[in-house]
Amino acid sequence: MSRIRGRDTLPEIIVRKALHAKGWRFRVCDKRFAGRPDVVIPKAKTIIDIRGCFWHRHGCKESTMPKSNVAFWTEKWSKNVRRDIRNEESWEREGWNRIIVWECALAPKKREHILERISDKVAAWADEVAAQVVRRKPHRLELPAKPR
Ligand SMILES: [Zn+2]
Predict the structure, then answer these.
(1) To pair with 143 at 20 to 30 A between CA atoms, which of 10, 48, 51, 135?
(2) Which CATH number characterizes residue 109's domain?
(3) Using one digit for the tens of pLDDT, what is the confidence trace for 77-94?
(4) Distance from the alpha carbon of residue 130 to the mean position of ligand 1, in angstroms
């Protein structure tokens, strides 16, 4: 976990392989969008962002608190979280659906189910794009939702 916005991390590869197997065409780390989201599927007007639970503070048990330099980490994380929010707002303004996939959702036991859900959503949203459905707000799905 040396990089915050690494390319080709294992969770990203897992998601990309599953999408590819379903026949979806996508762009990777697309510079045209704020924050260079991991996966962009134009046909479904959908952005998929895969987030590390520790760096992006999912709030699950992977989001541990280091024992030292707490102020440093807290500041660093709040920057990451603010950036994630800004990026999402930008995608939403441009009318793009989004799926936020937290790393913990891709644990081996849950993975298959989660990848199915992602693929089903992308298919449903691609149907909407094809049918030129006009939405007031794009879709947003988070897997799993942040614990409250
Ligand atoms: Zn998590």
Answers:
(1) 135
(2) 3.40.960.10
(3) 999 999 999 999 999 999
(4) 33
